Amino acid sequence: MCRYILATPVSPVDKAHKVRLIFGNGLRPQIWPQFVERFNIPRVAEFYGATEGNANIVNIDNTVGAIGFVSRIIPVVYPISIIRADPATGYSEPLRGKDGLCQLCKPNEPGLFIGKIIPNNPSRAFLGYVDKGATEKKIVRDIFRKGDAAFLSGDLLVADERGSLFFKDRTGDTYRWKGENVSTSEVEAEVSNACGYRDTVVYGVEVPNLEGRAGMAAILDPERQVDLEELARTLKDTLPSYARPQFVRLLSKVDMTGTFKLKKLDLQLEGFDPSGIEDSVYYLTPKGQYELLTPAIYEQIVRGEVRL
């Protein structure tokens, strides 16, 4: 919601209110400072949690971008932790040591966010779903000692030196390109900012004969108002080379989930073959410009004649 409000034209009445606090979740750090400055919002509170889960946190100290806090002095008293994730599983499974147990992340190291399941404590229980198989997938066992268990949130978080927690990405959304891990949520935020806060979804697509997945940014732009030259210039300044989308898809229409998010999986399954996509698709040339991806150029990319 804040992104849509920020996209409206600047008005003299932007600060003509008595709002002291806004409270919610999902305010991206890339627009947080601009929003509070433009509308003169003294305090922002963020909460994080899942309806069925037991891992809930809140940021009430106005730290920009944070979704919660866990003290670095006495972290063991908190029923939540961030544990190292295994890159080989798309960061969806814990990375275990030689003893078979999980490992806590160091400061600024992204990892899986878990909520410890404590027997006979209703506030630390995880009741699960009707589907027992789905329930079991959300439980990780033998974490810090044999026999213990925790709720697996499915999210990657990172904690700074103070203990402030920041959302990194959903597990499975992160992909590898040029030997580096790319966070789709970070790229989505930068692309959306660069094109007027438009709805944007980023995902990896497979390219024949290349390792990893190439980034695709799908942008809702039915009027075709996105300036691709300006987008390329901006992303060159805001993203490392491996994180810049290799493809841009300008969506004429979009299907939303029940929570008003773009359906990423459907777009990802369509790949980057322009002959099977109704929307216009562009590719990043070696000169750093986005140009129209034609069926002929697609075939050249597949054959390795055009390098990404």
UniProtKB/TrEMBL annotation:
Gene3D superfamilies: 3.30.300.30, N-terminal domain of ligase-like (3.40.50.12780). Residues 186-261 form the AMP-binding enzyme C-terminal domain. The keyword Ligase applies. PANTHER family: FATTY ACID TRANSPORT PROTEIN 1, ISOFORM F-RELATED, LONG-CHAIN FATTY ACID TRANSPORT PROTEIN. One of its GO terms (molecular function) is long-chain fatty acid-CoA ligase activity. Pfam families: AMP-binding_C (PF13193). It comes from the Eukaryota. Its EC number is 6.2.1.3. It comes from Anopheles merus. It is an enzyme of class 6 (ligase). GO terms for cellular component: endoplasmic reticulum membrane; plasma membrane. One of its GO terms (biological process) is long-chain fatty acid import into cell. This is long-chain-fatty-acid--CoA ligase. It catalyses: a very long-chain fatty acid + ATP + CoA = a very long-chain fatty acyl-CoA + AMP + diphosphate; tetracosanoate + ATP + CoA = tetracosanoyl-CoA + AMP + diphosphate. Belongs to the ATP-dependent AMP-binding enzyme family. InterPro entries: AMP-bd_C, AMP-bd_C_sf, ANL_N_sf. Keywords: Fatty acid metabolism, Ligase, Lipid metabolism. The lineage of its organism: Eukaryota, Metazoa, Ecdysozoa, Arthropoda, Hexapoda.
